[in-house]
Amino acid sequence: MVDAANPIRFGILGCAEIARKLCRAITLAPNATVVAVGSRSLDKAQRFIADNGLPPATRAYGSYEAVLDDPAVDVVYLPLPTSLHERWAVAAAERGKHVLLEKPTALCAADLDRILEACRSRGVQFMDSTMWMHHPRTARMKELLSDPNRFGQLKTIHTIFTFCGDPDFLQNDIRVKPDLDALGALGDVGWYCIRSVLWAADYELPKTAIAHHGSVKNRAGVILSCGATLVWDDGKVATFHCSFLSHLTMEVSVVGTRGTLHLSDFVIPFEETTAKFRFATDSGFKELVTGWLPLPSEHVISTDLPQEALMILEFSRLAGSIRDSGCKPDEKWPTITRKTQLVLDAVKESIEKGFEPVSITG
């Protein structure tokens, strides 16, 4: 574990709203600290430092390059628009900085591969910022899904992540701009749906993606709402729906031959310190079909740190083990990221081809 007296030092590229959340997470994590913030405007970087209560010694820079050139920065967190990810993540890795990258990680798998190769060649840790992966609830749910006596064999997964963007969001947010975040809702909220599907399937890639009819794009051609079916050779099936046009919803259902897992807040728990899910095993109907027996059990998982701080804790542990003990980067995280990107790319291609099936190959 990294000594709190010698924490992993973060530099933040850009002052996006999500960077405020990660700034708080870094502050909460005992093995991490923010030492530099860079923006295209020095004044904006200074305001970010002041507004987020960072120590006065935190360095403000009027360029991203200056953060990368700061020898005191161990890790670079990039909350930039997706169109800028490849350039700046590669530049960070080439300067020997570990890379924590916002999702979606790239516009396509080819761009992501250049990022991952840069990280691999310099021996730096890569991780995408999918926060729910680090909540203790996620580990507990995986234990139940892995129990053949309670869950059985995986059959199907259904997941939804939507929120209803207001008129200003739909007109002006970077996530609806083709030159900034061309993947739109598929990249932003669809990323979480695809990741949850892969997580439930032990990261076994589906063989085929078939986008659903009825996807919606704005006038600039950016996806505002879409969905897809994912199919495996062994008969497993998953569906997901993601949208900027529907009420806030974060559903996951995972169905096996003997059990079902369900939760309604998988990306951001309803509460920061506790998170719930339901799990049913060997359920059937009561006599005269008047109810269920046994009823699903409700599980409540508590945490002292929010999931984003736990992500920082884990990332800093990995970066510290490389810095202090000469360990190799953990390849699990870039592998999971790449599989998520491959499925996302296939869904996008299916939409572009008129909802034809698209094969997914690793």
TrEMBL record:
**For the GFO/IDH/MocA-like oxidoreductase domain, which residue ranges apply?**
140-261
Domain named Gfo/Idh/MocA-like oxidoreductase N-terminal: which ranges?
8-127
GO MF annotations, alphabetized: nucleotide binding
Q: Give any Pfam family that matches.
A: GFO_IDH_MocA
Q: Which family does it belong to?
A: Belongs to the Gfo/Idh/MocA family.
Its protein name is Uncharacterized oxidoreductase At4g09670-like
What is the native source organism of this protein?
Phoenix dactylifera (Date palm)
**Taxonomic lineage:** Eukaryota, Viridiplantae, Streptophyta, Embryophyta, Tracheophyta
Give the gene name.
Answer: LOC103721724
